[in-house]
Specification:
This protein is mostly beta strands and about 110 residues long. It contains no helices and eleven strands. A hairpin with a 6-residue loop joins strand 4 and strand 5. It starts with a strand and ends with a strand.
Amino acid sequence: QVQLVESGGGLVQPGGSLRLSCVVSRRIFNINAMGWYRQAPGKQRELVAAIGSSTNYADSVKGRFTISRDNGKNTVYLQMNSLKPEDTAVYYCNVRQYNAIDYWGQGTQVTVSS
Protein backbone atom coordinates (compact mmCIF):
# COMPACT_ATOMS: atom_id res chain seq x y z
CA GLN A 1 0.00 0.00 0.00
CA VAL A 2 1.34 3.39 -0.98
CA GLN A 3 1.50 6.10 1.65
CA LEU A 4 2.25 9.77 1.16
CA VAL A 5 3.47 11.46 4.31
CA GLU A 6 3.59 15.26 4.43
CA SER A 7 5.55 17.36 6.88
CA GLY A 8 6.71 20.93 7.34
CA GLY A 9 3.45 22.73 8.01
CA GLY A 10 2.92 25.07 10.91
CA LEU A 11 2.25 28.62 12.02
CA VAL A 12 4.19 31.41 10.36
CA GLN A 13 3.91 35.19 10.25
CA PRO A 14 3.02 37.00 7.04
CA GLY A 15 6.09 37.33 4.86
CA GLY A 16 7.64 34.21 6.32
CA SER A 17 8.62 30.93 4.69
CA LEU A 18 7.90 27.25 5.06
CA ARG A 19 9.08 24.16 3.23
CA LEU A 20 6.70 21.26 2.85
CA SER A 21 7.95 17.75 2.18
CA CYS A 22 6.08 14.68 0.98
CA VAL A 23 7.69 11.27 1.16
CA VAL A 24 6.17 8.47 -0.90
CA SER A 25 6.51 5.14 0.89
CA ARG A 26 7.44 3.16 -2.19
CA ARG A 27 8.15 3.75 -5.80
CA ILE A 28 5.12 4.49 -7.96
CA PHE A 29 5.43 3.68 -11.63
CA ASN A 30 4.01 5.58 -14.56
CA ILE A 31 3.78 8.89 -12.72
CA ASN A 32 2.23 11.67 -14.74
CA ALA A 33 2.80 14.35 -12.13
CA MET A 34 3.41 15.03 -8.46
CA GLY A 35 1.83 18.04 -6.89
CA TRP A 36 0.48 20.01 -4.00
CA TYR A 37 -3.13 21.00 -3.46
CA ARG A 38 -4.69 23.04 -0.71
CA GLN A 39 -8.08 23.44 0.86
CA ALA A 40 -9.13 26.37 2.98
CA PRO A 41 -12.21 26.26 5.23
CA GLY A 42 -15.38 26.54 3.18
CA LYS A 43 -13.52 26.35 -0.12
CA GLN A 44 -12.85 23.66 -2.69
CA ARG A 45 -9.52 21.93 -2.93
CA GLU A 46 -7.33 23.68 -5.47
CA LEU A 47 -4.10 22.93 -7.27
CA VAL A 48 -1.15 24.89 -5.92
CA ALA A 49 1.71 23.44 -7.97
CA ALA A 50 2.52 20.35 -9.99
CA ILE A 51 5.66 18.91 -11.48
CA GLY A 52 5.85 16.40 -14.29
CA SER A 53 7.30 16.98 -17.71
CA SER A 54 6.87 20.66 -16.80
CA THR A 55 5.90 22.66 -13.75
CA ASN A 56 2.61 24.46 -13.21
CA TYR A 57 1.60 26.95 -10.55
CA ALA A 58 -1.61 28.57 -9.50
CA ASP A 59 -1.56 32.25 -10.41
CA SER A 60 -1.88 33.18 -6.75
CA VAL A 61 1.46 31.57 -5.85
CA LYS A 62 3.59 32.26 -8.92
CA GLY A 63 6.87 33.87 -7.98
CA ARG A 64 6.47 32.91 -4.33
CA PHE A 65 6.27 29.09 -4.28
CA THR A 66 8.63 26.58 -5.85
CA ILE A 67 7.94 22.88 -6.35
CA SER A 68 10.72 20.36 -6.73
CA ARG A 69 11.22 16.61 -6.52
CA ASP A 70 13.98 14.19 -5.60
CA ASN A 71 13.29 10.92 -7.40
CA GLY A 72 16.02 9.10 -5.50
CA LYS A 73 14.29 9.93 -2.23
CA ASN A 74 10.72 9.55 -3.56
CA THR A 75 10.08 13.04 -2.22
CA VAL A 76 8.39 16.16 -3.51
CA TYR A 77 8.88 19.56 -1.91
CA LEU A 78 7.07 22.86 -1.85
CA GLN A 79 9.12 25.90 -0.87
CA MET A 80 6.76 28.68 0.15
CA ASN A 81 8.10 32.21 0.51
CA SER A 82 6.44 35.56 1.16
CA LEU A 83 3.50 33.79 2.74
CA LYS A 84 0.20 35.62 3.01
CA PRO A 85 -2.79 35.04 5.30
CA GLU A 86 -4.75 33.84 2.26
CA ASP A 87 -2.28 30.96 1.93
CA THR A 88 -3.73 29.48 5.12
CA ALA A 89 -5.09 26.02 4.32
CA VAL A 90 -4.52 22.32 4.67
CA TYR A 91 -1.95 21.33 2.07
CA TYR A 92 -2.17 17.90 0.44
CA CYS A 93 0.45 16.01 -1.50
CA ASN A 94 -0.72 14.23 -4.66
CA VAL A 95 0.74 11.70 -7.06
CA ARG A 96 -1.14 11.02 -10.29
CA GLN A 97 -0.44 8.15 -12.60
CA TYR A 98 -1.00 8.21 -16.36
CA ASN A 99 -4.07 6.02 -15.87
CA ALA A 100 -5.55 8.82 -13.74
CA ILE A 101 -5.17 6.98 -10.44
CA ASP A 102 -4.52 9.48 -7.64
CA TYR A 103 -2.68 9.00 -4.38
CA TRP A 104 -3.14 11.51 -1.56
CA GLY A 105 -1.42 12.37 1.67
CA GLN A 106 -3.24 13.09 4.90
CA GLY A 107 -2.61 16.82 4.72
CA THR A 108 -0.57 19.29 6.71
CA GLN A 109 -1.91 22.54 8.15
CA VAL A 110 -0.32 25.83 7.13
CA THR A 111 -1.44 28.90 9.06
CA VAL A 112 -0.21 32.38 8.17
CA SER A 113 -1.05 34.83 10.90
CA SER A 114 0.50 37.56 12.99
